[in-house]
Amino acid sequence: MSSAPRKPFSWKPRQVSDHRPALRMTASGRRWDVRLVGLISRNRFLVTHPKDDGKLVFIKEGECFDVANFDGVVLSAFESSVLRVVLGEAPGLELSLPPIEQRRRETVRRARRVTLNLPCSVRHGADADALRAGFTGDLSEQGAQVAIEHPLPAGVQRVDLSLRLVVSGTAQTLQLPAQIRSQADDPRPEVSATLLGLQFDEMEPTTRMTLALFVCERLLSEGDDVFGAIR
Description:
Elements: E1 22-27, E2 30-41, E3 44-48, E4 51-52, E5 55-56, E6 64-70, E7 74-86, E8 92-96, E9 104-107, E10 114-123, E11 131-139, E12 143-148, E13 158-167, E14 170-185, E15 194-200, H1 205-222
Antiparallel strand pairs: 1-2, 1-6, 2-3, 3-8, 4-5, 6-7, 7-8, 7-9, 10-11, 10-13, 11-12, 12-15, 13-14, 14-15
């Protein structure tokens, strides 16, 4: 009896339903993720109302929070207070925005990443079974996260990542040597995949320029300057 045909490996990154810039509010050991609605003035901005289990959190005017955002490279944080609680069909909070010199900034990554779901292949040797199909979940000039169906053999520390990118309207295939910095299961229980954190090795200048241009074009198309309106 013939077995059913095996389905090809497929993987998708976490879906984001709200693409407005994300901010994190913390107070007294609790934290909430909210979305930036807009800038009201140079010292005021509006965010969505925090929720716990789908219900609005009770917040009073005058309460203070630590507010932080991450734009893919830089983590920004500052202290803020609630100036007004907005109720109605679109509940939110009007928060104070301190001067730029009172905001803390820390560079967390060397390069901003773009989120995508791009087919790729990973090779860890010369044998026929050393080639794995996968998907690239995010990409920068310095590295990438790649999802493959099964873990790599123990001891593998380096791979070659093959990607086909469309840059300035032209499709190009890049071969990127990389070191494995992490290997872990996808944290979602319904997803069977191994996530590789890769750091690229030195590459040809033309390859690096192509990769940098792709990342730049992708960021521009997505409007990825998180919180840039008030930074």
